[in-house]
Design brief:
Structural class: mainly alpha
Shape: flat
Number of strands: 0
Radius of gyration: 19 Å
Oligomer: single chain
Distance between the termini: 40 Å
Length: 134
């Protein structure tokens, strides 16, 4: 999917671009839990072409999907916006500890109220503890 997203934003043919967007929207409808993690950041990209493409794919998926998919997309977009806010937030001077209940209220509320069943993938890498053989 990342390869398709890379190609769709840079493609010069409007016909090919439209077909790729349609294919990606179908992926979001069929596999929302996996596909939205690639599509949502695209819709929030700083590059206008990439952002527009991501928004088009999301809107097409919203039209093809049901109300639950629309709610999931809305929650996912809000989650992305909240995570960007967290990344950009500067802790108050002298603060030794930040808590979600005090400093990240919007993110905490979103996770509690709307994203309890939202699967957030966490990359895990395996590290070998044995030394290589000589």
């Amino acid at each position: 999917m990342p390869q398709l997203l890379s190609r769709v934003t840079a493609h010069t043919s409007t016909v090919v671009r439209s077909e790729l967007c349609s294919l990606l929207a179908d992926c979001v409808v069929a596999y929302p839990g996996q596909a939205i993690w690639c599509i949502l950041p695209l819709a929030s990209a700083l590059d206008a072409t990439r952002a527009t493409t991501g928004q088009e794919i999301i809107e097409e998926a919203r039209r093809r999907g049901d109300a639950a998919l629309g709610a999931l997309l809305d929650s996912g977009l809000e989650l992305c916006a909240q995570l960007v806010r967290v990344c950009m937030q500067t802790p108050p001077r002298g603060l030794r500890q930040m808590t979600a209940s005090m400093h990240l209220r919007g993110l905490r509320r979103l996770l509690r109220e709307r994203l309890q069943s939202f699967a957030i993938p966490v990359p895990v890498s395996r590290v070998s503890s044995s030394a290589p053989a000589d």
